[in-house]
Amino acid sequence: MADTETEALTDGFHLIIDALKLNDLNTIYGVPGIPITDFGRMAQAEGMRVLSFRHEQHAGYAAAIAGFLTKKPGICLTVSAPGFLNGLTALAHATTNCFPMILISGSSEREIVDLQQGDYEEMDQLAIAKPLCKAAYRVLHAEDIGIGIARAIRAAISGRPGGVYLDLPAKLFGQVMDADAGAASLVKVIDPAPRQLPAPESVACALDVLKSAKRPLIILGKGAAYAQADDDIRALVEKSGIPYLPMSMAKGLLPDTHPQSAGPARSLVLKESDVVMLIGARLNWLLSHGKGKSWGDKPKRFVQIDIEPKEMDSNVEIVAPVVGDIGSCVSALLDGMGDDWSAPPADWTNAITAKVETNVARMAPKLQNNNVPMDYQGALGSLRTIIKERPDAILVNEGANTLDFARSIIDMYQPRKRLDVGTWGVMGIGMGQAIGAAVETGKPVLAVEGDSAFGFSGMEIETICRYNLPICVVVFNNNGIYRGTDVNPTGGADVAPTVFVKDARYDKMMEAFGGVGVYATSPDDLTRAVNEAMDSGRPTLVNAVIDENAGTESGRIGNLNPQSVVSKK
Predict the structure, then answer these.
(1) Of 436, 433, 378, 380, nearest in space to 403 by CA
(2) Cβ of 289: how many Cβ atoms within 10 Å?
(3) Residue range 491-520, pLDDT digits in tens
(4) What does the alpha-carbon distance between residue 243 and residue 259 come to, in Å, rounded to a whole number?
(5) Which of 58, 330, 376, 391 has the highest CB neighbour number within 10 Å of its CB?
(6) What is d(CA 540, CA 534) in angstroms, rounded to the nearest whole number?
(7) In which order are the strands placed within the sheet that holds 516-520?
(8) Structure pTM?
(9) Count of C-beta atoms within a 10 Å radius of residue 569
């Protein structure tokens, strides 16, 4: 007698969705297309949030910043070959910045790729991805989907976080297996980022070095912000009495207006300090590698807290390395300080306070001007006040001058509220990060963009409008890169390489997609427009007209531009 019961089946599509949902990964950023179009539809039908972008790179930036904000890997989904390559920039960016992210790409079949027989979008994607991410895996069989996704999650989050690539050939999606066996094959990742406790002797050594300091300084990096050990970090800073300098994405771990904040006295504290403790910060180019003119000629001793042992001694000697996760390390330092910790010498802290007050007072009038056209100080001064009144809002910032001036002018008051270009200083993160931040937090987002930076991702304002996200984009429009005043030295018809279309109306782009566009020529105009946007929650773009003479070459990193010494006659 034939069995009339129909065996319950599942397939690769549903196993991938179930594996992600089992691990509380319910949002996908990506661009649909062959071979993952149906996957996106099915994921949405299963209750996942699937956000479709206009370009994979920006979907990747959204996923990367989602990882930073949530400590769970952000998911970016792309098609094969060109789509994969577009997403790869964001994956490498995530790895460089230590953001957990998984790039999932469909791919051509192995047997055709390996023989190079010319399949649709044929490419050995796994081999290309491996050098640019923390780990890379390929899943060939439906029964391995659960373990493949589990490995990707653990790799992205554990130790120093980073980007992971997961390669899913087209045939995998349609593979069928018994539903019960499929469910049993799924893996819920347990404790993917276990605490890594520092060695007690390393904690004691670090405290001894700090105790001996006459001019100590703490530098907070974005790793400290990622750790979400906010209360302990604040307690350590305040109990120690040591002045602190936040790197840009660490701003707000303690309010920038905190009495121990040395941000406005950066040059002084770097040059004059004798002991520097790094918490989640690296001595890379952003800190002049811990040496050179920025650090002065006084000898320095460095204490470094990092989860990655290989980070120690990367540029200079670290006399007290403390290896472990930041939360555990900071907690151990707090416990070891006891109740009789002595504050730094008053002459050091008083000198910093005086410098901070002098620099703040000197800058104040510049931030209050209402010049037309606007300069950077007047425009950012108005946005500074808005963020002060709305400390819960998220600030996304990129550009050259727009980035550099905003980093020093706009104070932050809460952790993980300032998102920017990160370690690479990469242009184009703006709209992707703004979308990711709005989706993951539900908070209003203010994206402050140079006109050049906005050009990398400007079409994503359609995505912002499509999903009706509470994002206000401010484009600082000075008609060019750095300035809009360069000229073609030959006198030819082509404009100079750094010059854009004069008086471009970026606000009209937002209106074209159903959002609100505003043309602002003064700080007062800018203040009104941004406040209205933040109150309404409607997608808004403010075209802020900046004096085209106001910028400086390469912002504050013009020294990285090689200079020709050859005069052509």
Answers:
(1) 380
(2) 15
(3) 999 999 999 999 999 999 999 999 999 999
(4) 8
(5) 58
(6) 9
(7) 418-419, 394-398, 445-450, 471-477, 540-545, 516-520
(8) 0.96
(9) 3
102-145 pLDDT, tens digit per residue, is: 999 999 988 998 889 898 888 999 999 999 999 999 999 999 99
Rounded Cα gap, residues 71 and 226, in angstroms: 7
> Stretch 79-102: mean pLDDT, rounded?
97
Whether residue 420 contacts residue 249, with contact meaning beta carbons closer than 8 Å, is answered with yes
Half-sphere exposure of 10 (CA within 13 A, CB side): 22
Alpha-carbon distance of 28 to 60, in angstroms, equals 10
Q: What pLDDT score does 501 carry?
A: 96
Residue spans of alpha helices (H) in 310-460: 326-337, 346-367, 376-389, 401-409, 430-441, 451-457
Cα–Cα separations (whole angstroms), residue 400 to 275, 487, 555: 31, 20, 5
- Helices 230-240 and 326-337, axial angle in degrees (round to 10): 30
Q: Domains in the chain, start-ordered, CATH in brackets?
A: 9-185 (3.40.50.970), 200-354 (3.40.50.1220), 368-545 (3.40.50.970)
Is the predicted pLDDT of residue 526 greater than 60, yes or no? yes
The predicted pLDDT at position 5 comes to 59
